[in-house]
Amino acid sequence: MWIFLSTEILFFGGLFLTYTINRHTYALIFADASRSLDLKLGGFNTVVLIGSSLTMAMSVWSAQLGKKKLVTTFLILTLLLGCVFLGVKAIEYHDKYVEHHIPGASFDIYYCLNNPSACNLSGKALEDETKEINQATEHEGGQQALNAHSQLFFSLYFGMTGLHALHMVIGAGLLVWLIKQSIAGRFTAQYNTPVENVGLYWHFVDIVWIYLFPLLYLIDRH
Amino acid sequence: MSEHIVSPKLYLLIFVVLMVLTGTTVYAATVDLNHYYRGLNVIVALVIATCKALLVVLFFMHAYYSSKRTQLIIVAGVFWLAIMLSLTLGDYASRSWDVH
To answer: What pLDDT score does A3 carry?
Structure first.
C-alpha cells in the first residue's frame, strides 16, 4: 500500500510543482483569486476531513481488537463525513459557477463587479473587490491579461481539488465495499488488512487536503 | 499483519492537536508576516501543514510503529518528491529567461 501511496505523492507532486511556479510568477493574482474562495466552507471541510481521519483510525482500532459492530459503526461514520465533504465541495463549485470563475469561454473575473447582486456583493466588500481588481488590472496591463492570468489560479484550483475529490469518491466506494464485508462479519483481530489499507489511503487523501487548504484558501488573507 | 495497537486516547489527542494547528494556520494567514520577512506567510503555512502531515503519517497511519522497511518506502516517496521539486525549481530559477 505504501508503494502505491509513494506513486500518489509524485502524482499530486506534479500539480504542486505547477502551482509553485505559477504562484511565484503571478503572486498578486494568486492572492486576489485565493481571497475569492469561501474560507468558512474551506475551513469547515478541513475539520470534517480530519474528523473522518479520526473515525477511520478508530475503525482500524476496532478491527484490530475484533470489535465487529464498532468497525461497521466507525466505517459508516467515516463514509458520512466523506459525503459531507463532497457535498460542501459541490456547493463551493456551484458558487464559482455563479461567479463565472470556472476557466473557459464564460470565465470573467469582472463578472461580480458588473453584476454585484448575482454574487451577493455590496457595501464595503464591493468597494474592496473593486479596488483589488482595478489594482490587479493595472498591474497586469489590461483586462484581457488579468482574465488570462486569473484563469491559471482557477484552473489549478479545479484541477487540484477535482483530483482530490476524485480520490474521495474512490475512497467512498472502497468504504462501501468495506462496510458490506464488515456487516457480514469478515473482519477479525486476525484478518483486518483491507480496513488498514483503505485507512492508509484515506489518511493520504487527508494529507493532500492539509496542503491544499493553506495553499489555495489562505494566500495573504490580511 | 503484526501490529501495534494505538489507544483511542492518543488518536483523540492527535485530532485535537490537528484542530489547534488548523486554527493557527487560518489565524497566521490573517496576519501580515511578509512585512517582517518576504514570503514568511507561506513558509509558516507550509511548516504548519508539514507538522499536521507528520502527525497523520506517524500516528493515524502508524508509521511511528512500522517496520524499518515500511519507513524506508515512505522516506523514499518523499525523497523522490524532493528531487522532482528541487531539480525543476532549481532549473527554473537559474535560467536567464524573463518569467513575466
So the answer is: 93
pLDDT at B66 over 50: yes
Domain definitions of chain A by residue range: 2-217
Task: Please give the grid coordinates belonging to residue B88.
Answer: 525543476
Q: Give the gap in angstroms from C-alpha A193 to the nearest C-alpha of chain B.
A: 7
pLDDT score of B99: 54
Residue of chain A whose Cα is closest to the Cα of B13: A54
Q: Give the CATH H-level superfamily of domain A2-217.
A: Cytochrome c oxidase, subunit III, four-helix bundle (1.20.120.80)
B contacts of A220 (beta carbons < 8 Å): 29, 32, 34, 41
| Cβ atoms B58, B92 nearer than 8 A | no
Tell me the ipTM for this assembly: 0.91
pLDDT at B9: 95
User: Which member of A9, A43, A57 has the closest CB to residue B26?
Assistant: A43
Segments in chain A forming alpha helices (H): 2-25, 27-35, 39-64, 68-98, 111-114, 123-140, 143-183, 193-212
Contact B74 A6 (CB under 8 A): yes
Query: Is A214 part of the contact surface with chain B (CB cutoff 8 Å)?
Result: yes
**Percentage of the residues of chain B whose pLDDT score is greater than 70:** 93
